[in-house]
TrEMBL record:
Pfam annotation, one family: HTH_ParB
Biased composition (Acidic residues): 553-568, 580-606, 613-623
Domain ParB-like N-terminal: 16-108
Positions in coiled-coil regions: 331-358
Keyword Coiled coil: yes
Organism in which the protein naturally occurs: Heminiphilus faecis
Keyword Glycoprotein carried by entry: no
Regions of compositional bias (Low complexity) in chain numbering: 569-579
Protein name (record): ParB/RepB/Spo0J family partition protein
Family to which the UniProt record says this protein belongs: Belongs to the ParB family.
């Protein structure tokens, strides 16, 4: 069905009725979620009253179809209502930017827009570049603060964003949570807002209480750290800039732990290097219980050695504090404090000079201690050394060479570690398997090579029976041939056959391997254990037959019932011979006459009831091996 023009308002705008089959949604509609229930309600309204407000569309170049500019909800409801066409305003000359602008404006003026849809629409308007906060504020009649706060909601994790649209938390609470990063949001949701949380549930709390709880539980007091915090004063993650109730003089709390950690590590690293520049003879160290592994790793990468401290350091003297004039009541008191300060400075200078002289003489050693939260300078007495090594240039050169060697080792170690991580990300699935890679495979397979095959793979002069070292493996793979490859591969298989047990796949592979390489030996092994099994199986069948006979008297009891009435009522059981003489008590001597007295009872039944095997017979019936079989079956 073609579009039917009804009225032309301008040269580029037409009112028309268009077939729904010719219309398709756009990909820039700010509205992404459509509630099924509200769509159904709108569809019912359309069925009764029709479309009250036309949707906006524009032609798709080169086709007879149209793209929705605004009104996608009405379009969807019309489809549900079974309509064939819809009233539309056709914009015949509308650019992509203009179409997006109209879609944004139309969505912002809807009455049923959700908080998250509004936030996404406002963000799209700002991101488009056609609005700034001031012009958008004028366009929609909202303050700039309102717009900024709403846009901040777009930083919420999806789980919390859904709680706003379902009205399980207020927009004000969501706004407080949106001030923080993803890590904090995730923990707040899992611990306090998720379905099923019973302890410390934050749903129903007002925004002020939620804000205080987040600051208390998820932020760190900046006053505990010594790095330059000038940038923190205006940081959006500083609670001073998030909350309205910070006390005067408060530096705030940081809600971005990763940034805080990096600043702290950078500060400690720089302080350590600067301290070493001031005291070149000092050594870096750390204690066993107070260390900062990240700072130590950075200093190591920079080529510095860090010792593990054994013993206690004497703190390096601190500079005296300068007196402040405003802390004294009179000029005389301040002058006396200045004089005392100058004396302390002179004493401090003399003490530092003495420490430096002793350090240069080798009497003491200076140490820069890398702690968890600070870097400090201290010293301790140097252990006595042999006099010939005291100021020996050769010893110092050897020490420097050892340090240089270690630095090279560190570079190689770091290279290998990073390569192991990156190689997991490399896409080599389409690359042809090379000969070098084939040799690498054999290098690792050699770990399973048996000692009796060392000579067969070329190690003719080897006397030790210990495992192969890397050098020997490299020698072997450098001289591989068909024979040595077969030996290495089969030893690898044999080594892995150790994991075979009763009914796993490795056992099947083991038997298949043995059938190919040792068929006679395998046949003999199978015959031996099959013979044992058959004997045990026969004994078990015989025992089962005896046990089965033991149950047969129960089936013949009804035939014997008429004779039990003659038995003495006080006698719980009647022996078979008592059936013919009810007035006499059964005697043990009468047992041999049982067969004659009970013609209805078979010999097998009587034997199963009364027979008790001797110990020798029981042992013959149930050997220790059979007991093992029964336990295995159980």
């Amino acid at each position: 069905m073609e579009a039917t023009a009804i009225q032309t308002n301008t040269a580029n705008v037409q009112e028309a009725t268009i077939s729904l089959a010719l219309i398709q949604p756009s990909n820039y509609n700010p509205r992404k979620n459509f509630d099924e229930q509200s769509l159904t309600e709108l569809a019912d309204s359309i069925s009764c009253q029709g479309i009250l407000h036309a949707i906006g569309v524009r032609p798709i170049t080169g086709t007879d179809r149209y793209e929705i500019v605004y009104g996608e909800r009405r379009y969807r409801a019309s489809l549900i209502a079974g309509k064939e066409d819809i009233k539309a305003t056709v914009y015949t000359d509308l650019s992509d930017d203009e179409a997006e602008e109209k879609a944004i404006a139309e969505n912002l003026h809807r009455q049923d827009i959700t908080p998250m849809e509004e936030a996404e629409t406002l963000k799209a308007a700002i991101d488009s570049g056609r609005y700034d906060y001031a012009t958008l504020s004028t366009q929609i009649g909202r303050s700039e603060t309102y717009i900024r706060t709403r846009i901040k909601l777009t930083t919420l994790i999806p789980e919390i964003a859904r709680l706003i649209d379902t009205e399980e938390i207020t927009v004000a609470v969501a706004t407080e949570i949106s001030r923080y990063g993803v890590d904090i949001q995730t923990d707040v949701y899992n611990s306090h807002l998720k379905d099923g949380v019973t302890y410390n549930d934050w749903r129903g709390m007002n925004a002020s209480n939620v804000a205080r709880l987040i600051e208390k539980n998820y932020t760190t007091d900046l006053s505990r750290y010594r790095f330059d915090k000038s940038a923190c004063a205006s940081c959006p993650f500083n609670t001073i800039n998030l909350l309205l109730f910070c006390e005067d003089g408060c530096e705030g709390n940081c809600s971005n732990p990763s940034c805080l950690r990096e600043k702290h590590i950078g500060y400690l690293t720089n302080k350590a290097v600067e301290m070493l520049n001031e005291h070149p003879t000092a050594n870096f160290c750390h204690s066993e219980y107070d260390l900062n592994e990240r700072v130590n790793a950075l200093l190591t990468e920079m080529g510095y050695d860090i010792e593990k401290l054994s013993g206690y350091l004497t703190p390096y003297p601190c500079e005296p504090a300068v007196p402040q004039s405003d802390r004294f009541d009179t000029e005389e008191e301040y002058a006396e404090a200045v004089k005392a300060y100058e004396d302390r400075v002179e004493a401090h200078r003399e003490k530092c000079a003495d420490i430096t002289a002793k350090a240069e003489a080798g009497e003491i050693s200076l140490y820069i201690t890398i702690g968890r939260n600070d870097v400090t300078l201290g010293y301790m007495a140097t252990p006595a050394k042999p006099s010939e090594n005291g100021n020996n240039p050769k010893a110092e050169i050897a020490k420097l060479e050892a340090k240089d060697k270690r630095n090279k080792e560190i570079a190689v170690e770091r290279t290998i570690e990073d390569t192991k991580k990156k190689i997991l990300e490399a896409d080599i699935t389409e690359t042809k398997f090379s000969q070098d890679e084939d040799k690498m495979i054999y290098f690792f397979l050699l770990s399973s090579l048996r000692k009796e095959h060392y000579e067969a793979v070329g190690l003719t002069d080897r006397k030790s029976h210990s495992a192969l070292n890397d050098s020997e493996k490299m020698t072997i793979i450098a001289n591989l041939n068909a024979k040595t490859k077969a030996i290495i591969r089969r030893d690898f298989l044999i080594d892995n056959f150790k994991g075979a047990y009763r009914d796993n796949a490795i056992a099947d592979l083991l038997l298949s391997f043995a059938k190919k390489h040792m068929p006679e030996e395998l046949a003999n092994i199978e015959a031996e254990y099959n013979e044992i099994y058959e004997k045990r199986h026969q004994r078990i069948e015989e025992r089962k037959a005896l046990l089965a006979k033991d149950t047969e008297p129960e089936a013949t009891e009804p035939e014997a019932e008429p004779t039990t009435e003659e038995a003495t009522p006080d006698t719980p059981e009647v022996a078979p011979e008592a059936e013919n003489s009810p007035e006499e008590e059964p005697m043990p001597e009468a047992e041999p006459t049982t067969e004659e007295a009970t013609p209805d009872t078979s010999e097998a039944e009587t034997e199963a009831t009364q027979y008790e095997p001797t110990e020798e017979e029981a042992e013959a019936i149930l050997t220790e091996e059979e007991r093992y079989c029964e336990e295995a079956v159980a």
